[in-house]
Amino acid sequence: MWNVSFEGSNGIVQISETGDRVSDYSLFDLNPKSGHFEEVGTYFGVNSSFIQLKDIYWIDEVKKTPVDVPPCGFDGRKCYVYKNPALPWIYFTAIVTSVVFILTIIAFWYFKRVSFEAQLKAMNWIIEPDDLFSMEDLGVKCKSLKRDRHKRGSVHHIPLADEENDTENGAAVKTARFKGSIVELKLIQHKTRIDINRLLLMEVKTIKDMQSEYLVRFIGACLDPPCLVNEFCSKGSLQQLLENSQIRLDDMFKYSIIHDIVKGIMYIHNSDLQAHGSLKSTNCLVGSRFVIKISDYGVPSLRCSLHQKYPANCDAYYKSLLWSAPEIIRDPHAPIQGSQKGDVYSFSIILHEIIYRRGLFATNETGVMPKEIFNSIKLGNESRPPFLGDNTLYEIGYLMKRCWQENPADRPDFTSILNTIKKLSKKFDNENLVDNLLQRMEQYTNNLEELVKERTNDYLLEKKKAEELLYRLLPQTVTAELMAGKQVTAESFEAVTIYFSDIVGFTKISAESTPLQIVSLLNDLYTCFDSIIEAFDVYKVETIGDAYMVVSGLPTRNGDLHAREISRMALTILDAVIHFRIRHRPDEQLKIRIGLHSGPCVAGVVGLKMPRYCLFGDTVNVASRMESNGQPLRIHMSPTTKGLLDKFQTFIIKARGQVNLKGKGDMLTYWLLGERDGLQVPFSNDSDIIDNQNKTETLSSDQ
What domain of life is recorded for the organism (predicted)? Predict the structure, then answer.
């Protein structure tokens, strides 16, 4: 029976189409308050509807209908948990480990912070001037630094970034020895001392921590006088290397130089500095193994700005700015530390220097002044170094043009530049590079040997000239002792003959002539005398004004020949004077007085600056009196000299008579008239010249 209805004992019975009886149900709920079941709802089977009459009291007074299936299932299997007895310890260990890890991180950060502050406060980079020793004398401390320390405000003005290796401005980098090594000293231009502050400490720590084979190592600094102490590069700057025509740089060697510069700047750009700011060929130094090292980086607080390094309107000022990017040149307030794109532009200018080796902006070739180039760039023109078109590194040209673009955003970074350089240098394999570097070193050594040989020859030539000049000023025996470093002691000579002469009326001639005419007169006369004395065994002592002093018998002793040598020389000089003509007074006869005397004397060197070989003793005084008491165009001599000449029996001598000499009283003196079979005074027979043997003349010794 399906889908039928009929009357049953309990009422109408209805069968559904599926054969099930359709029934109505009532839902009863236990009221927890009254303890009785109450009808809370009715279900009607005919229309499958449920009418709720009252609220149902659920467990734990929950108002909403519970789920069909409990969360843990009807049998509780879904919520079964394995109870591990070690689980609490695992939780404890995890918590402790996490806490320890966090505390370790905090402690590590704190330690690094404390260590960082301790390093700042330690200031172990400060170097005392007394620890620097001069290169000239390793036992002498740097006097220049110690001297400058006491001259506040008068420190040598050597710019921080453009010094010795920056030879175009004439500055020089000082060198010293510090802890057994040669170091480079760079005095800071615009400060009298370094004031320490936190900013400076941070900057110094930054550069001191920078270690690269392509950077010049910072060693320390002196506070007063203010100077930086850096690693010393003995081969100078890249600019000096490029300007040295004796060193040939092939393409591979140029690529090696470029590669070193790029690596050094990349290191700076990846450091806390982020930029160099003053990149130029003078700041690229050549190490002992031909590795290019970048210098003058960091410590911007100690650097003067680009526009303060040199006096304005000087060539060095404009030349120093030509490496700077256009945006920096046009901005008077540009940051001292520069920018990375500015370094790229500076690198392009160095590239041009390396490729062509014609100087900065090829000024050696074009002749354009740095000021003209600077003004052109400042006005906004794209003035760039010219392409000369005679180099083999044409591949670099495109890279160079990219690097000096006017817009900084159009310039590549150094990572891109390094990749380009590596691609261009692929044709040079590593083996050839090493071989070429060894060949370059050998060639450089040969160049140095040739240069040393050339300089040695120049030195020997100049040494010979100096010795010849010294031999003219001092006797050869004395000169030899001085050059040997020996102390020259005074020497006594038993017998010498001294010659004195002066020009008669020299004061009047000087008053009537110009200084230049007097100089010409003395030069002509003494040149004549000097040429004469070379033929005799005599030594010229000195010339003072119009006085001429010669001696024989020293420094080399010659027995009794000294009187004969001086007498023959005096006759020759007198004969030359008689025929001598004054250039500006040709009609006037030049007249001299000559005095001779023989005796003992002492000779020695006097003074350290401009030393003089001087004669001392009474013989010198008497010889001077012989000259001052003589007469024009006559040779006046003492009886001592006359006695020595009589031994030769060849000289013509006439007695003058008694002459009163200052300090000596009356003395019988003589005229030397000539030598038989030799020179004679032309007017020796004149009665006005030959005095009577018994006639006594008293002449003032003050003439």
Answer: Eukaryota
Last residue of a domain, one of 399, 428, 457: 428
Residues of the chain short of pLDDT 50, as ranges, are 137-140, 143-144, 146-172, 305-307, 431, 684-703
Greatest Cα pair distance in the chain: 210
What does the block give as tokens for 260? Answer: 């070193």
Q: Are 241 and 320 in contact (CB under 8 A)?
A: no
Number of domains composing the chain: 3
Residue 702 lies in a domain: no
Please check whether residues 410 and 491 belong to one and the same domain. Answer: no
What spatial distance separates the first Cα and last Cα of the chain, rounded to whole Å?
Answer: 183
Same domain, 245 and 336: yes
> 251, 393 in Cβ contact below 8 A?
yes
pLDDT at res. 304: 62
Per the CB < 8 A criterion, the answer to whether 54 and 34 are in contact is no
Q: List strand residue ranges (DSSP E) for 505-609, in order.
A: 539-544, 547-552, 581-582, 585-589, 592-606
The pTM for the full model equals 0.53
CA dihedral 95, 96, 98, 101 (to 10 degrees): 180
3-state secondary structure of 621: helix
Residue 345 to residue 621: CA distance in whole angstroms? 79
Q: What confidence score (pLDDT) does residue 303 get?
A: 72
Strands (E), 281-427: 284-286, 292-294
* pLDDT tens-digit map of 324-342: 999 998 888 888 888 999 9
Domain end marker among 392, 407, 428: 428
User: For residue 209, which phi and psi values (nearest 5 degrees)?
Assistant: -80, -10
Q: Evaluate whether residue 434 is within a structural domain.
A: no
pLDDT, tens only, 256-289: 889 999 999 999 999 988 999 889 999 999 887 7
Q: How far is CA 284 from CA 146, 161, 251, 272, 296, in A?
A: 29, 11, 19, 20, 9
CATH of the domain at 365: 1.10.510.10
**How confident is the model at residue 428, as a pLDDT?**
60
CA atoms within 13 A on the CB side of 344: 25
Do 402 and 546 lie in one domain? The reply is no
68 and 192 assigned to the same domain: no
Does 609 fall in a domain?
A: yes
Query: Which amino acid type is present at position 553?
Result: G
Pairing of strands 37-44, 218-222: unpaired
- Residue 365 CB neighbour total at 10 angstroms: 13
User: Do 371 and 487 belong to one domain?
Assistant: no
pLDDT at 308: 53
Q: Is 224 exposed, middle or buried (0-12, 13-18, 19+ CB in 10 A)?
A: middle
C-alpha to C-alpha distance for 475 and 557, rounded to whole angstroms: 13
Task: Give yes or no: residues 489 and 423 share one domain.
Answer: no
CA distance 34 to 27: 17
Are residues 667 and 565 both part of a single domain? Answer: yes
3-state helix, strand, coil in the chain (%, to 5): 40, 20, 40
Structural domain range at position 176: 129-428
Nearest to 473 by CA among 605, 628, 319: 605
Which of 248, 273, 393 is CA-nearest to residue 340?
273
- CATH number of the domain that residue 487 is part of: 3.30.70.1230
Q: Looking at residue 437, what is its pLDDT?
A: 65
Whole-number Å distance between alpha carbons of 465 and 458: 11
- Triad 460, 465, 470: Cα angle to 5°: 120
Pairing relationship of beta strands 634-637 and 665-675 according to DSSP bridges: antiparallel
Side-chain-facing half-sphere of 156: CA atoms under 13 Å: 18
Task: Please give the backbone phi and psi of residue 232, each rounded to the nearest 5 degrees, phi first.
Answer: -95, 130
Query: Do 68 and 158 sit in the same domain of this protein?
Result: no
| pLDDT tens-digit series, residues 459-497 | 888 888 888 887 777 777 777 777 777 777 788 899 999
